[in-house]
Amino acid sequence: MNVMFILLLFLATVFEFLQSSNVVAKTPIPPLSGDATELPSTNLTLQYVAVGRGTQNYTCASSGSLPVQQGAVATLFDATWLAYHDESTLNAIPPRAVYIPFLPYRFDVTLPFIVLGHHFFDSIGTPTFDLYSVNKTLYGRKTSDIKAPAAANKGPAGTGAVDWLQLTAKPGYESNGVSLAYRVVTAGGEPFNCTIAGIMIVQYAAEYWFYD
Ligand SMILES: *[C@@H]1O[C@H](CO)[C@@H](O)[C@H](O)[C@H]1NC(C)=O
Ligand SMILES: *[C@@H]1O[C@H](CO)[C@@H](O)[C@H](O)[C@H]1NC(C)=O
Ligand SMILES: *[C@@H]1O[C@H](CO)[C@@H](O)[C@H](O)[C@H]1NC(C)=O
Ligand SMILES: *[C@@H]1O[C@H](CO)[C@@H](O)[C@H](O)[C@H]1NC(C)=O
Q1: Does the keyword Signal apply (predicted)?
Q2: C or N: which end of the chain has fewer Cβ atoms within 10 Å?
């Protein structure tokens, strides 16, 4: 056999594999069941899936006051391929990623994922998803909120996993290419009880599923 023939055979095999894997890879669906309730499903088109790793920030007015959410900061790692091909491995990542040290916006090189973008709150508390690597943005508002499952990972602080959410595009803001997101499979992020006045920073990780 000559080299060209072997090359063609190889390419044919690769092509066939890609064809069959395209057929097999059905659009994945995020887990929507928290404790007892379920987030509303969507019939919009799945665009991206990300693993978010960062912090949930709270403020305490004084000892014994209720912690108030002040914002959140996270790097969003592109996990779309994994969601399509091995969702159970994807679901195992947030409970592990929450234990990996996090430096805001400088975390980009320590996981084998491409950075999709960043998550933060704007100056008036709008949860923002800047998917800068694909030039898409969601300015969110919460449209559904359920407790994480009781078995969810409590995170390194041991405080518990933040709620699972559905967010949709906030009216009056120019979201672009994303109109709905879920935050699910959360790990960590719940606040401590306030013991002093000040800012409280709690490590968390989660999956974010983006639709349009
Ligand atoms: C999509 O979902 C919305 C509500 O979430 C519903 O009003 C609409 O009929 C659905 N469309 C299709 C094609 O199923
Ligand atoms: C939240 O905490 C992070 C540290 O993880 C900090 O970089 C960020 O500025 C804080 N954001 C807000 C809104 O407090
Ligand atoms: C990014 O998206 C916006 C809104 O659709 C568009 O106006 C802009 O030209 C895009 N930028 C690039 C670099 O593609
Ligand atoms: C906060 O205080 C409540 C009531 O005292 C207690 O049940 C809860 O476990 C505390 N939470 C944390 C994270 O310590």
Answers
A1: yes
A2: N
Residues forming a β-bridge with 118: 75, 130
Task: Please give the Cα distance from 182 to 21 (Å, whole number).
Answer: 26
b vs e for 110-139, b when ≥16 Cβ sit within 10 Å of the residue's Cβ? Answer: ebebebbbbbbbeeeeebbbbbeeeebbbb
Question: Whose atoms come closest to the Cα of 126: which ligand?
Answer: 2
Query: CA 148 to CA 204: how far, in whole Å?
Result: 13
Whether the CB-CB separation of 112 and 44 falls below 8 Å is answered with no
Which atom of ligand 3 lies at the shortest distance from residue 174's CA? 4
Atom 14 of ligand 3, residue of closest alpha carbon: 135
118 within 8 A of 130, measured Cβ to Cβ: yes
For the Cβ of 55 lying below 6 angstroms from any atom of ligand 2, the answer is yes
| Gap from CA of 71 to ligand 2 centroid (Å) | 7
Q: What average pLDDT does this structure show over 12-18?
A: 44
Nearest CA to ligand 3 atom 5: 176
| Pocket flag, ligand 2, residue 120 (CB < 6 Å) | no
Segment 74-123, tens digit of pLDDT = 999 999 999 999 999 999 999 999 998 875 554 444 556 789 999 999 99
Q: Do residues 204 and 54 lie in contact, with contact meaning Cβ atoms separated by under 8 Å? A: yes
CB 135 less than 6 A from any atom of ligand 3: yes
Q: Which of 65, 192, 193 to mutate to test the pocket of ligand 4 (most atoms within 8 A of CB)?
A: 193
Average pLDDT over residues 173-190: 98
